[in-house]
TrEMBL record:
It comes from the Bacteria. InterPro entries: DUF3085. This is DUF3085 domain-containing protein.
Length: 121
């Protein structure tokens, strides 16, 4: 099992981190998402650019849905994991039309660039 981040959602977060010369953070708490370590904030103090995993956005997905998916893939504990947005798989996301799949074991996170699914009519 894995969660998918749409490249169209993730690229702006990666670009913000590159411009701000900071890391990106994979977070599991109220949803599963990436954000720049030093990103622009709105008037409410909330970070403006956030890329949620498909099905794990508490603003659009039901609590039971995103919570169950996040727990099944990443376990019950909240966490934040830091990455360099210019390294490895993130360079593929920045410079191609790829999505990102993230899966987890007890000891490892696996990140893989994947071709987005075809758009259905």
């Amino acid at each position: 099992m894995s969660v998918r981040f749409k490249g169209t959602d993730l690229r702006p977060v990666l670009l913000e981190a590159v411009v701000n010369q900071c890391r990106i953070v994979l977070v599991k708490d109220q949803g599963v998402y990436f954000l720049a370590e030093r990103g622009e904030r709105g008037p409410d103090g909330r970070q403006k650019l956030i890329a949620y995993a498909v099905g794990c956005n508490p603003d659009v997905d039901t609590f039971d849905g995103w919570s169950e998916l996040a727990h099944a893939e990443f376990g019950g504990d909240d966490f934040g994991e830091f990455f360099d947005p210019r390294d490895g798989v993130f360079a593929l996301i920045l410079h191609n039309a790829n999505d990102l799949e993230v899966s987890a074991t007890v000891t490892h996170l696996s990140l893989q660039a994947v071709v987005p699914p075809p758009i259905s009519n």
